[in-house]
Amino acid sequence: MDRRSFLAGSVATVAASSFATAQSADEIRIGAPLPLTGPLAPEGRKQKRGYDLWAAEVMKRGGVEVGNKKLPVRIIYSDYQSATPRGVQACEFLVNQEKAQFLFAPFGSGAAKAGSAIAERYKIPMLAATASSREVYDQGFKYLFGTFTPNETLTDPLAALVVAKAPAVKKVAIFSRNDLLPLSLATALREGVKRHKLDLVFDEKFAIGALDFAAPLTQMRAAAPDWIFVGGYINDLIQVRTQMRELGLKSQVLTMIAGPAYEEYIQALKGAAENVSSASWWHPSVRYEGEDMFGSTQKYVETFKAAYNGDVPDYAEASASAIGAILQLALKKTGTTDGPAVRDALAAMNVKTFWGPVHFGPSGQIDSLTPPVFQIQGGKTVVLLPDEVKQGDLKLGIS
Question: CA 129, 130, 132: angle at the middle one, nearest 5?
Answer without folding.
Answer: 115
